[in-house]
Design a protein that fits this description.
190 residues; UDP N-Acetylglucosamine Acyltransferase, domain 1; nine-stranded mixed β-sheet; six-stranded parallel β-sheet; 24 strands; globular
Length: 190
């Protein structure tokens, strides 16, 4: 194996786990899961059937990724953030995996601690979901969203810093511009 799994964790078969990935205490990786290279899964992470996790993702303690969730590369999931896959669950009337609603978290996005991601949304590249937010609709790339329900309050740089009013980053000197409501990088940072 060219990845690490702590002895207290369970990895069902078949799964795909990339080189350099570390799976820490009390995790459960279920059949069909695909985890990329150089990921870190903290304590008590559950990766359900057929979940896809890209390369270089960091999933903090107590996160459950339910079937239907896809994380692209470099996604950060803060402690105890929550994903769902059914808008109208009933214990008596399970819908089965063919009816789960999909959620996509694009490259570089960050989800803060205790945030809830209601299924069926896309979180754009490099977006930042604040701690405790409840995301009920799509989040644009580079958007900063907070609150219940989550609302956009600003923009964030690829490096994670909040952009100023001129859409510049004081941390890495990147500059952005709005083009039809989409943030695009116009000047590379240092």
């Amino acid at each position: 194996m060219d990845y690490f799994v702590h002895e207290s964790s369970y990895v069902d078969e078949p799964v795909s786990i990339g080189s350099g990935t570390k799976i820490w205490h009390f995790c459960h990786i279920q059949p069909g899961a695909k985890i990329g290279k150089n990921c870190s899964l903290g304590q008590n992470v559950n990766v359900s059937n057929n979940v896809v996790i890209g390369d270089y993702c960091k999933i903090q303690n107590n996160v459950s990724l339910y079937e239907g969730v896809t994380l692209e590369d470099h996604v950060f999931c803060g402690p105890s953030c929550v994903f769902t896959n059914d808008l109208t669950p009933r214990a008596k009337y399970p819908k089965g995996s063919n009816n789960y609603i999909k959620t996509l978290v694009k490259e570089g996005a960050t989800i803060g601690a205790n945030a809830t991601i209601v299924c069926g949304v896309t979180i754009g590249s490099w977006a930042l979901v604040g701690s405790g937010a409840v995301v009920t609709k799509d989040v644009p790339s580079h958007a900063l969203v907070v609150g219940v329900p989550a609302k956009q309050i600003g923009w964030v740089c690829e490096c994670g810093a909040i952009l100023d009013d001129e859409l510049g980053c004081k941390s890495c000197d990147r500059t952005y511009a709005l083009n039809n409501g989409e943030l695009i990088e116009v000047k590379k940072g240092r």
